[in-house]
Amino acid sequence: MDDEQKLTQLKSLLNEVWDLRRVVRLLQWDQQVKMPIGGTHGRAHQLATLSQLEHVKFTSEEIGQLLEDLQPYAGQLDPDANDARLIRVTTRRYKKKTRVPADWVARKAEAASEGYRAWEEARATDNFSLFQPYLEKNVSLRQEYAEFFKPYEHVYDPLLDEFEPGIKTREVQQIFDELRPHQVALIQAIGERAQVGDSFLHQPFDEEKQRDFGAEVVTRFGYDWKRGRQDVSPHPFTESLGLGDVRITTRFMPDYLSSAMFSTFHESGHAIYEQGIDPDLDRTHLATGASLGLHESQSRLYENLVGRSYDFWIHFYPRLQEYFPMQLANVSLESFYSGINKVEPSLIRVEADEATYNLHIMLRLELEIALIEGQVLVKDLPGEWNDRMGEYLGLTPTNDALGVLQDVHWSEGYIGYFSTYALGNLISAQLWECIHTDIPDLPEQVRRGEFSRLTGWLTEKIHRHGAKFEPQELVTQATGSKIDPAPYLRYLESKYGQIYGL
Prior knowledge:
Elements: H1 3-33, H2 40-58, H3 61-69, H4 71-76, H5 82-97, H6 102-125, H7 128-147, H8 157-163, H9 169-191, H10 207-221, E1 230-232, E2 238-240, E3 246-250, H11 257-275, H12 292-306, H13 310-323, H14 325-328, H15 333-340, H16 354-373, H17 381-393, H18 419-438, H19 442-447, H20 452-461, H21 471-479, H22 486-500
Helix pairs in contact: 1-2, 1-3, 2-6, 3-5, 6-7, 9-16, 9-22, 10-11, 10-13, 11-12, 12-18, 13-15, 16-17, 16-18, 18-22
């Protein structure tokens, strides 16, 4: 075969691998949204079988040989061309995957499926002991995974690299070390000011109207309902089953407006990213986001920089009042804006305000590293969690459902993941400053409820590239520098300085 034929053959094989991965994702989506509880064990076996099959197919000698043969050809192409990047990215992933035994992949998939159901029951009954053995298995599996990649600079590096390719643990720790004192100082300064009110957010709000308003907004953002849908799940998430099928979920609180509203905005950001990927990348390892940090930057941008902005509510608040006249008719725009941006340390990460959110992430990163290093045992995790919540946020959970059991990620083996949330916050503000430079009248557009140029900018700079570039590379291309905490700090200080009169 000549090089073109070899490339065609490689793509054909990768298409099959990708299809298997999407079927796995479909089964995972179904487990969290539709599957009856009795299907847990059967689903665990199905996921283990398919995940192992996908892994074996991807790490085949045939794919390895094709990648090796195509290296000279890739060197002749524009280094940023789709085919050149496909060969480069796939080669990197192939080298990683071939270090991981297929039986480990099966065991991980089975543990994740069983762990998710155990987590659901443990959280619902506030009984950590139900979840403990499953989490112990997931931690053990992740420790085992790290060992496949010796020598490493830090044992956590292989786990982090799975979600943020090319970024090291020390880089994240340095970023957080720079960020932490500024955020703590801001929170302390806000704490010395008169608190804003948000009681109007805590009253009955019809679930169907909450759903309809959220759908109306994300449609304006650019979410394509012909290639998506919305469902309910215990923990909001987005699942891409292909560029033509990107689904979002949320959870509704009948007595709290902000939860479903902002989680819908948030998940739409993830979905718009996936829907905006270049169709030429479909059914390959480039047909997804560059990293979870980049993904989170999109969701946080739509949720917070747009959705919690005053400009946004100039247009949408009258519409929200039409949905909920009894609850909001006598609440001014200024009071509503202040209320949805209230800064107050809280127990639940997904409900945390922008000023305190990153502290939740830093706590989880510390615990993950301690778990993988063996410095903290799973059985001691509830106490460690509560102690660090007191240290970071001055709060102590009254039960484990509000503490160590609140997040779904560890149940599915996603250890190495949490720092991406804070990195996403930083990237979102970095992009936001550049967007305002390129679209000077963006505030006026947002006040009119127009987002086509904003979403178009993000599609051009971020979305269409999929996973062609590593995160630091893509951020540098879009903004001129690597991930930088400064724009995020400027954003927080400006916004909350105005709200709290700092």
